[in-house]
Design a protein that fits this description.
By secondary structure, the protein is an alpha+beta fold. It folds into three domains: 113 residues, no CATH class; 101 residues, no CATH class; 58 residues, no CATH class. The protein is 25% helix and 30% strand. It contains seven helices and 17 strands. The strands form two sheets. The chain has a 15-stranded mixed beta sheet that branches. It has a two-stranded antiparallel ribbon with strand order 8-9. A hairpin with a 3-residue loop joins strand 3 and strand 4. Helix 5 packs antiparallel against helix 6.
Length: 310
């Protein structure tokens, strides 16, 4: 048996489109479609496996009225008067068409051979691996050597021509922000992004009875049983993510460090540092300040006492 002595890393470009995963509840997600035919729908699958994901209702193309659609770090919305763009067959064709647009000759299309795990040293791993996909912005000012900048993204809701749109906000270290999910993608600087929160005319919280559009999926009317994160918390999270992309510590990391310092030296000065670092964190992110089991329980106990801990 020959032991490997070389390794190469290949970058595979793709695009994202919107989709819905059903895993006990309905979850909005970005479906990542790559030029080699791999598709990330919470599992990395090939074209044949994706078709089966539709067949088994892992990926769904519509939601019944009065069901909730959950949107990560945005909230959830009750669906009423839903009008959906695709059926299973046409959505599968749509995803396949994206692959063909990226790879017109359909060359070197990945085949998973119906395999979704890999066993190494007795440990089961998801296969093929998802890698670390990132939004991509290409600076074409240099036509010979265009610069590629990777970033990160968060979901939000924008108002455009009096209609609510669920969008992905792509943040890049070069100060470019790209809004995906509107009728036309929109680019702005990060300062312009922050300014668009000021009067609520762009980033918004939908109200009951308003129209809500999810591009490439469909549209519906917002029902009464809907809850959304406060707009200021959305703004704080985007600011924090932008700072992290610039190489700064996240507010969650700063808080975790403050709690460590308080545990090592529990005095009033360190308690106040912990309070300040904890209370600046948006409500929906505070649970990430601890481990998966206790979350932020220990911090809340230190700050507010046992009676304030559920």
């Amino acid at each position: 048996m020959i032991s490997p002595t070389m390794m190469r890393t290949v970058k595979v470009k793709g695009v994202t489109t919107h989709g819905i995963i059903y895993n006990g509840n309905y979850y909005f997600t970005d479906i990542e479609v790559y030029s080699d035919g791999l598709i990330n729908c919470w599992d990395m699958v090939d074209l044949k496996q994706f078709k089966n994901k539709l067949k088994t209702d892992w990926v769904v193309v519509e939601i019944s009225n009065h069901q909730r659609l959950y949107i990560h770090h945005v909230g959830y919305v009750e669906i009423t008067e839903g009008n959906w763009k695709y059926n299973k067959r046409s959505y599968n064709k749509y995803i396949t068409s994206i692959v063909k647009s990226l790879n017109p000759r359909m060359e070197n299309i990945f085949n998973c051979h119906n395999r979704d795990i890999e066993i190494r040293n007795g440990i089961r791993y998801t296969w093929p691996p998802r890698g670390e996909p990132k939004p991509l912005w290409i600076d074409t000012s240099d036509h010979v050597f265009p610069k590629e900048v990777c970033g990160d993204s968060r979901y939000a809701i924008c108002k455009y021509e009096n209609v609510n749109y669920l969008v992905s906000v792509h943040l890049f270290e070069n100060d470019i922000v790209r809004i995906v999910g509107l009728p036309h993608d929109k680019e702005m600087t990060f300062n312009e992004l922050l300014g668009s929160f000021e009067n609520g005319s762009f980033f918004t919280i939908p109200k009951q009875g308003e129209k809500f559009v999810v591009s490439e999926i469909g549209e519906f009317v917002v029902g009464e049983d809907s809850r959304f994160i406060d707009l200021n918390d959305v703004k704080l999270e985007l600011q924090d993510e932008y700072n992290r992309i610039q190489g700064k510590h996240s507010i969650v990391t700063i808080c975790a460090k403050a709690f460590e310092e308080y545990e090592n030296n529990p005095n009033s000065e360190n308690l106040e540092k912990l309070r300040v670092s904890y209370e600046v964190i948006p409500q929906h992110l505070r649970c990430y300040c601890g481990d998966m089991d206790r979350r932020d329980t220990m911090i809340r106990r230190a700050l507010y006492g046992d009676e304030c801990v559920e």
